[in-house]
From TrEMBL, chain A:
UniProt keyword Coiled coil, yes or no: no
Annotated protein name in UniProt: Rieske (2Fe-2S) protein
PANTHER family for the chain: 3-PHENYLPROPIONATE_CINNAMIC ACID DIOXYGENASE SUBUNIT ALPHA, CHOLINE MONOOXYGENASE, CHLOROPLASTIC
UniProtKB keywords: 2Fe-2S, Dioxygenase, Iron, Iron-sulfur, Metal-binding, NAD, Oxidoreductase
Taxonomic source organism: Novosphingobium guangzhouense
Keyword Calcium found: no
From TrEMBL, chain B:
UniProt organism field: Sphingobium chungbukense
InterPro entries assigned: NTF2-like_dom_sf (IPR032710), Rng_hydr_dOase-bsu (IPR000391)
A Pfam family hit: Ring_hydroxyl_B
Keyword vocabulary terms for this entry: Dioxygenase, Oxidoreductase
Protein name as it appears in the record: Anthranilate 1,2-dioxygenase
SUPFAM superfamilies named in the record: NTF2-like
Recorded family membership: Belongs to the bacterial ring-hydroxylating dioxygenase beta subunit family.
GO biological process, one term: 3-phenylpropionate catabolic process
One example GO MF annotation: dioxygenase activity
Length: 420, 162
């Protein structure tokens, strides 16, 4: 009996449980605009980068919160700051490079200069030239800083918020998320490089995808066939108290090839004929004492912190519009990695990112949904695997965390938008 | 720069032919033949200029044996899910940068155009190849091939070799 057939026998009685998401939230500009305001500029903390990306005083990185350009800086006192990348004069980008090192941030247009915290420190011709021109007498420099975001670092992961009222970042994340961050960021990290992937779909389809342990062994043949991830593995799907964030983890040592083969039946993605010529790709090291080999920590709204075998990475979502987003993958290792460990991480990087033998498929999963729901005004999805509620599970056959995401979304943005 | 010697011209010709064949096998979907252009012990990597220019080694694709190249192709055929698409490589001239015995180091600019199911063709990836080629045998082969790409924003996925 195939998986689909097994499923049919379970689905005989119509169920009232489950979550229905109107497809227009993925296509309609009104939702997108409201998300920018209510989520990315609202009562949330967005991930902006690793402290390891700006290790030295004066280091900066240009990035985005939602669609808004921001700059992550490291000040001379060692603190990290996040400011909107828009000059307080007439709105030009202050940093035009992706990254670099500067003692101050100077806008090229009229050379207004800001310190690394975003405070305005210089205005050319402020008092005019030869007694002519100049700014008005009551011009107050301190009223014209770059827009400064609240910034908090949690074990080297830097988050920023536009909100003055949102709880502290650690409280926003909650203990489960903080504990997972501490687990992976357990010692100083070093950046191995970035990968950037443009996906022609709505960013929330990726938020669903990364809260979805159900798809992982059905879409990704690599996961299943080589036992990197199977829904039969020992693992859990947990959420924070507010059900914003999702933690999926599993333990590959719990594989039982014969039993798993039976469970997956004739599924396309359990392909015992598929063998690698060079198995070195999958040779890694047991790095963590808990034996956990896969962690997908999806942090609302724009971060995934992941461990797949020995690959460690953050994935940041940057929105471009209702039907397009960028996924920035920043891979890292530990500063004390020996040469062999560095080589393992660089080789296993073949598994993830846009060319990843596993991860490439999630881009396609997002796009085939986006392509199918175009113009759809009333239809909804139906999310009910595992019982149809935003509940934790001590197994991996659930969509509970996706429902948790939508419960939060409904609260912050709503499924109904007012007529424009 | 004086006139090239006959040997230099032969090396340059062999390297350019190998690159042209590399592009042809990929573009014509003869991917099963593609690993044979490499030595058994070889290195193939596709890395963004963004990483390469910072001396960071993280590549989108990194293979250090011919077996890994075969595995990429078998995976593409049997395992991976991706949008239907084809490539068209446009190659610039291959220049021999240095020679050591029968091993030449070359550089070649490339553009890869992608055509998807919707019929549109777009510039998918552009960059340069830096290759080490053994030109000693009848058929020359890559000892290493590095595609350093400028287009660091990858459109949806990368499954075919560059
Ligand atoms: S816009 Fe920046 S100085 Fe004028
Ligand atoms: Fe996935």
């Amino acid at each position: 009996m195939s998986i689909a057939q097994q499923q049919d026998t379970l689905d005989q009685a119509p169920s009232t449980a489950g979550c229905r998401v109107p497809y227009r939230v993925f296509t309609d500009r009104q939702y997108y605009d409201r998300e920018q305001e209510k989520i990315f500029k609202g009562d949330c903390w967005s991930f902006v980068g690793l402290e390891a990306e700006v290790p030295k005083a004066g280091d900066f990185k240009s990035t985005f919160v939602g669609e808004t350009p921001v700059i992550l800086t490291r000040d001379s006192d060692g603190s990290v700051h996040v400011v909107v990348n828009r000059c307080a004069h007439r709105g030009a980008l202050v940093c035009r490079e992706m990254r670099g090192n500067r003692s101050s941030l100077e806008c090229v247009y009229h050379q207004w200069a800001y310190d690394l915290k975003g405070n305005l420190i210089g205005v050319p011709f402020r008092r005019g030239l030869k007694g002519q021109g100049g700014m008005p007498g009551d011009f107050d420099m301190s009223q014209h800083n770059l827009r400064q975001l609240r910034t908090e670092s949690v074990n080297g992961l830097v988050f920023a918020s536009f909100s003055e009222t949102v709880e502290s970042c650690r409280d926003f994340l909650g203990p489960i998320v903080v504990e997972q961050i501490e687990r992976i960021m357990c010692k100083p990290v070093t950046v191995l490089g970035d990968q950037r992937q443009r996906i022609r779909g709505n960013w929330k389809l990726y938020a669903e995808n990364t809260r979805d342990p159900y798809h992982a062994s059905l879409l990704h043949l690599f996961h299943n066939t080589f036992g990197l991830y199977r829904s039969t593995q020992t693992g859990k799907a947990l959420m924070d108290a507010n059900k914003r964030h999702s933690l999926l983890y599993s333990i590959a040592a719990s594989n039982d090839d014969a039993a798993d083969k039976q469970a997956y039946g004739d599924s396309r993605t359990f392909d015992t004929e598929f063998k690698l010529q060079d198995m070195s790709l999958l040779k890694g090291r047991q790095e963590f004492a808990d034996n956990v080999t896969l962690v997908i920590l999806a942090v609302y709204p724009n971060l995934v912190l992941q461990q797949i075998q020995n690959t460690l990475a953050v994935r940041q979502t940057v929105t471009y519009g209702p039907d397009e987003f960028e996924l920035v993958w920043t891979h890292f290792g530990y500063q004390d990695d020996d040469e062999e460990m560095q080589a393992i991480r660089l080789k296993q990087a073949n598994l993830i990112g846009p060319a990843g033998l596993i991860s490439m498929e999630d881009g396609e999963a997002v796009e085939i949904v986006q392509n199918a729901i175009v113009g759809e005004a009333s239809a909804t999805s139906y999310i009910a695997m595992g019982g149809g509620r935003a509940e934790d599970a001590d197994h991996l056959v659930t969509e509970g965390a996706i429902i948790g995401f939508w419960d939060n979304y409904r609260e912050m943005v709503g499924f109904e938008v007012e007529p424009a | 720069m004086g006139l090239p010697t006959l040997e230099q011209m032969q090396f340059q010709h062999a390297a350019a032919q190998l690159n042209a064949l590399h592009a042809e096998l990929i573009d014509d979907d003869r991917l099963e033949e593609w690993p044979n252009l490499f030595e058994e012990k070889c290195q193939y990597s596709v890395i963004s200029a963004e990483n390469h220019n910072r001396s960071l080694n993280l590549a989108a694709v990194f293979c250090d044996s011919r077996g890994m190249l075969v595995d990429r192709i078998v995976s593409l055929r049997r395992a991976n899910i991706f949008p239907a698409h084809s490539y068209r490589h446009i190659l610039g001239p291959t220049r021999v940068k240095s020679t050591s015995g029968q091993i030449v180091t070359t550089q070649t600019n490339y553009v890869v155009l992608m055509t998807r199911n919707d019929g549109q063709t777009s510039i998918y990836n552009s960059g340069k190849y830096v290759d080490q080629i053994d030109v000693s045998g009848a058929g020359s082969r890559f000892l290493s091939k590095t595609a350093i790409f400028d287009t660091h924003l990858i459109d949806t996925m990368m499954v075919r070799p560059i």
